[in-house]
Sequence to fold (401 residues):
Amino acid sequence: MVHSQIPGHRGVRAPRAGPVQRDGIGPELRRVLRRPQRELLSYGSSRSNDQGVLDQGESPHHNGGPGTPNWPSRVNSAKRSGKLPAGKDIKSGWAKGGYEIRLEDIPAWRLAVPDPVPVPERLTKPHSVVAALRDGKRTLNLTKPVLPRTLRLIQAIVAEAEHRGHTIRIVNQRTDRHGYEHAESEDHFIVTAQGHPCGVRITQLKERTDHVASAKELADAARDSWVRIPRFDHPLGNRLGIAVGGGFVHWQLQRSDTDTEPLEGKLPQILQEIDLRGAAAEAKRHADQEAARERRRQWDAAVHRARQDYAEAHRIRALEQQEHSWRRAAQLSEYLHAAQQRVETTHHAAQREAAQSWLRWIQGYVERLDPLNGEMRAPTIPDPRPSDLEPFLNGWSPYGP
Fold:
């Protein structure tokens, strides 16, 4: 064997192959995603179709594997760049065909600007839920300095929620079998939007402060080398957070005080989150009802077909049984004829009498066995049991959808 003729052998240049798309994307999209802050956005806005999906030829599915680009990192970088096309957002994630990148329209609720929610400066006429929380009927687990502001924030939320047609109640207490009371959930009160509950919980956030070592900690650290003195303490601060539970999350689970914006300015988004979750839960309820009705319709149709198939199978079995009985009667008739000829040759009177008696019974049995001797009509279909229909339901349960 001559090694110089082997492509790829050391010292021999292999034939140059065409471009190989090992990650499932074309060269243009590869160049775009190499600098996502600029090319990815322009590519998505100019090359996407009406549904926000990349054009054919530049597949939005990119296979993973060693040596492939870090698509999640590049997509996140494009999101942070602030250069998304107007009204568009990048959606990405692992799908069956690989990593999928697509542009979608921003939903209307993300573009809406909610009206501000007024927060009272004093609690002159607190809501019944606010009064119950103030009086300790539901423990808030907050320090005393933040309690007045917390109650005013709750008053603003419940007043605006009632104005929007929602109902509010405090979280109920339940008594266990040992006589101890427990709250039904970790939430402090429940806002029912369009018939669907959303729990609201107020939390007091911790702050990080420098830790001042005590004399005992210093002595322990000097004595034992494995003792480590913590650098920071995390006491409860004055910042608050409001979490909304239940339903499908649209914005986020919790909003908190920040250095740039207090919770008072985030109440509109909290109320909008409650509205969105109630509307989404109601839409899901209608969709589930419609799906249940459709499933019931399909089940009824399957049962109707199963009853027809069961009746047809019963008729076929009856026909086959009649045909079998008819052929059996014909065979026995032939035997009966041969037996009668044999009996006629018998000279012994007692034997002839016994044989003729037996032949009379055979003749009667053959006449009863032959279906042609009776009335010709379709068989009566019995009422099927669930187990009788199961073989004809093609996977459906005979007891219900």
